[in-house]
Request: fold
Amino acid sequence: MIKVVTSEERHTVKQGPVQSEFSFSFADYDDPGNAHFGCLLVLNDHTLAPGKKMNAHPHHDLEILTYVISGELGHGDDSGQARILKEGSFQVLSAGTGISHEEYNSSELEPVRYLQLWFLPERRSLPPTREDLLIPRESRMGSMEPVVTGRGGNGPLKIHQDVDVYIPVLQDDREISVPTRNRRQHLFVISGHVEFSCGKQRFTLGPGDAARIQREEALSFRKTGEEPSEVMIIDLP
Reply:
């Protein structure tokens, strides 16, 4: 199964200072046929206006991954420790038994764009934890090293689920292979254009487009066009 979801097919919401693109059923966007892809429940593409914030709200029994694409995102939670996540920062928040957090744009001049993903955890009622790390785009040029791993993986950030997340930045048109292992892969184009192949099928994706893949054939992709491309690949059960 290969399902391509274009950027235009995402659900767009403008609520006050934040504009969001929802890849899956979320909040007031209720679509039972688009509720999840394996353990991936949410992939939201947010842009928050300068100096604005999203008020504190609770979560439990979720693994939440945040990636700051551009700008600076402030984060505070009931641990009492605030963070400024700069461009290129990743945060894994394990909500576990319960945590409340808020997000805000620490700049009065520039918007902040960030992705937020929710995964079901491998088990419920874990103790809440938070870990964040800056991984600049320059260090991800052409790299298929994972930024987030679970189940004993060697990525710099850990998640309580059997998931690996890669976010390479492609500068040339060389082909990159992705091991499939008879699992699911979710490919999301953050910027630029890519062509990907799975078996004998070939597809072209642009910014905001995604592909949900559940096939045994080898998967590979490459940049097309003049500009660099940034891609998120999620390998999950």
User: Anything to note?
Assistant: The mean pLDDT is 93. The two ends are 14 Å apart (CA to CA).
